[in-house]
Amino acid sequence: MPKRSSRRRDVNQLAAIIVRAATGPTKKRHRKNPAAVALGRLGGLKGGKARAKRLSAEERKEIARQAAAARWSARTESEK
Question: pTM for the complete prediction?
Answer without folding.
Answer: 0.40
